[in-house]
Amino acid sequence: MGFTVNPRPMSPRQFASFGLLLLAAARLQGLVVDSSISAVTVYSDRAQVTRSAPVAIAKPGTVELEFTGLPLNLNEQSLRVTGSGTAKVSILDVSSRNEHLSTATNERFRALEEELAGYAREQRRLDDREKLHNEQQAYLGQIRAASVAAQPEGQKRPDVEEWTRLLAFNSEQLTALTASRQQLADEREALQRKVDLAQRQLNELRGNRGKTVKRVIVRIDAASAGDLALNLGYTLPGAAWMPTYDTRLNTEARAVNLSYFGLVRNGTGEDWSNVTLTLSTARPNLGGGAPEIAPWFVDVYQPRPAPAARAQAMNEEADAFARKKSAIGSADKGFGTGNVLALLDAPAAPAVFAAEQAQAHVDASLTSATFKLSAPVSLRSDNSSQKVPIASFTLPAKLQYQATPKLRETAFLAAYVTNSSEYPLLPGVSNIFLDDSFIASGHLKTVMPGEKFDLALGADESVAIKRRLVNRFSETVGLTSKTQRITYEIALTLTNNRKSTERLVLTEVLPVSRNEKIEVSLLTPASREVGTKEAPKELTREEDGKLVWRIDLKAGEKRELTLKFQVEHPVDLPVVGLE
User: Fold this and answer.
1) 36 neighbors 52 (Cβ within 8 angstroms)
2) What pLDDT does 435 receive?
């Protein structure tokens, strides 16, 4: 028993109606959730965003939950879904697709236009009230002018009682009119705020029309009805943060108060409003491990073949490929177009992904840490920077002055600090304060917990240094072989004007001979008073001719130092570098 099917095609109207029915059926299966950004983790070159959405599951079954209007540049491979609640569900899979906003915003666009039209009508009503106020004030002015004008001959002038009633009436009307004008001004101000807000939203929609965004679809299988708190996570480029510091030295306490901040920039395309912000020092762009190094081959140089030889080799390769293809075609004889179409028509098995629960990742290495801020943060996606506090702690400091009088007769204060906090300090700009005075801006290097670092705190005139060339004497000595001898004598004056003992590290330099015929001798201080790096003394001679004094100057102490040395070389030997 057979039957016949009429293959009559659908009309365009029927086809459109059928498409709308399919679209409506698909939309019934999907539930657009109202989500908001709840948490953001910012790295040096990206942001990890978490969106939260409350969902009510009405009955068991498979449900599609849709997150709309997401940035187009989100990393699809980073999509991650978690959830918890009274509804028992399994997360089946998550997918995404592009969505054009030209039609999606039409309804909101029309609603805003109608809202602005209503505000325009309200504005006209306020204008009518203001016009009435002006007329009332003009009328009161006419009454007042008539009351004081000269009366016509034979007309009785108002008595005191009538004047009193007239003044009371005028005062009452003016008071009421003033209050009404103030109320009108308040209503105008409130109306203008509504107009500005609606106009900004309308302009934003106009700018977004034609824009493409992401729609993320989460498919879940609900075993029971109930509430579900759903979280969607993804990464976005365009966000970054960098550390900055306020370093304040308390000279009396000999301690450094270090305020740790993060300069956060948001250019992701999404505004962050009252989000839980975490700053991470991890660098995901470097990957998880060290890169593999390629072998370094060394071979005998092989000259490239001439053009004719290359062409012949290419023809031989083409002939070999054609022979191979012919052999394959003979072996697969009978595998025709029909078989290919049959394979293309075969339905593919739908992919089912097991739900992966998010795990908190704790990086216990010494080179990374995460800073979860204590207060919510709001930051617009306009690529501007916002300074957020990370931590503040006090570190004991060892202070000392450093000076190189030959280059500059100034003592510079430095603090030597150990990072006894649990925070790794990343490279960043440091604003340096000495007590309550801003000194300079410097750069802080990477300092891990337990590591030592130093802070340059700028010049301090309370420790005075003077350097003077007392004598430079040149003479020729020797009877047979003439030798040129140059003697230098330098005086250094150090004064501590502070009310406490201060350590001063003073550096001078002796000439360093690069020729055995040039001899350099230190005369004062004597060699027995000079130490080495292995056995340091108050004056230590280090490499490259450096002489370093480490002196503890008492409060108000003034001290004189003398440096005397000589350089000898043959008269006929030209020498460069002498002053």
Assistant:
1) yes
2) 83
Q: Which residue has the higher pLDDT, 16 or 175?
A: 175
Beta sheet of 483-496, edge-to-edge order: 463-477, 483-496, 558-570, 519-524
The residue among 122 and 9 whose pLDDT is bigger is 122
65 with 55: CB under 8 angstroms? yes
Q: Is residue 251 domain-shared with residue 389, that is, in the same domain? A: yes
Take residue 28 and report the two structure tokens written for it: 């019934």
CA–CA dist 523, 564 (Å, integer): 5
Which positions ≥6 away from 379 have C-beta within 8 Å?
Answer: 264, 266, 271, 272, 386
Domain boundary among 459, 487, 517: 459
Residue 560 has pLDDT above 90, yes or no: yes
Residue 372 and residue 423 in one domain: yes
Q: Among candidates 318, 488, 494, which has minimal Cα distance to 402?
A: 494
Is position 561 within any domain?
Answer: yes
Sign, Cα dihedral of 74, 80, 86, 90: positive
Which residue reads 């008071």 in tokens?
175
Distance CA 162, CA 158 (A): 6
| Token pair 């034609």 in the structure block, residue | 210
312 — pLDDT class (breaks 50, 70, 90): low
Is residue 463 within 8 A of residue 494, CB to CB? The reply is yes
- Name the DSSP class of 574: -
Residues 255 and 268 in one domain: yes
| 24: confidence class by pLDDT, cuts 50, 70, 90 | very low
Instruction: Please check whether residue 381 is in contact with residue 483, taking contact to mean a CB–CB distance below 8 angstroms.
Output: no
Measure the CA–CA gap between 432 and 247, rounded to whole angstroms.
5
pTM of the predicted protein model: 0.58
| CA distances for 190 relative to 128, 187, 195, 506, angstroms | 17, 5, 9, 69
Contact (CB, 8 A) for 38 and 233: no
Residue pLDDT, tens place only, 94-107: 988 887 765 445 56
Rounded to the nearest integer, the mean pLDDT of the chain is 79
Prior bond of 9 cis (ω within 30°): no
Return the exposure string of 99-135: e unless at least 16 CB atoms fall within 10 Å of the residue's CB, then b. bebeebbeeebeebeebeeeeeeeeeeeeeeeeeeee
Structural domain including 535 reads 463-570
Mean pLDDT, residues 453-472 = 90
Please tell me the total count of domains within the chain: 4
Count of residues in the chain: 579
Please say whether the beta carbons of 396 and 255 come within 8 A.
yes
* Pairing label, strands 463-477, 483-496: antiparallel
CB 510 within 8 A of CB 568: no
Nearest to 134 by CA among 82, 72, 181: 181
Query: Does any domain span residue 347?
Result: no
The Cα–Cα gap between 393 and 418 comes to 12
8-state DSSP, 366: T
The pLDDT value recorded for residue 158 is 66
CB-CB neighbours of 299 under 10 Å:
5
Which range is most confident: 227-241, 320-334, 429-443?
A: 227-241
- The pLDDT of residue 355: 32
Question: Per residue in 335-357, is it b (16+ CB within 10 Å) or e — as a string?
Answer: eeeeeeeeeeeeeeeeeeeeeee
Q: Are residues 526 and 388 in the same domain?
A: no
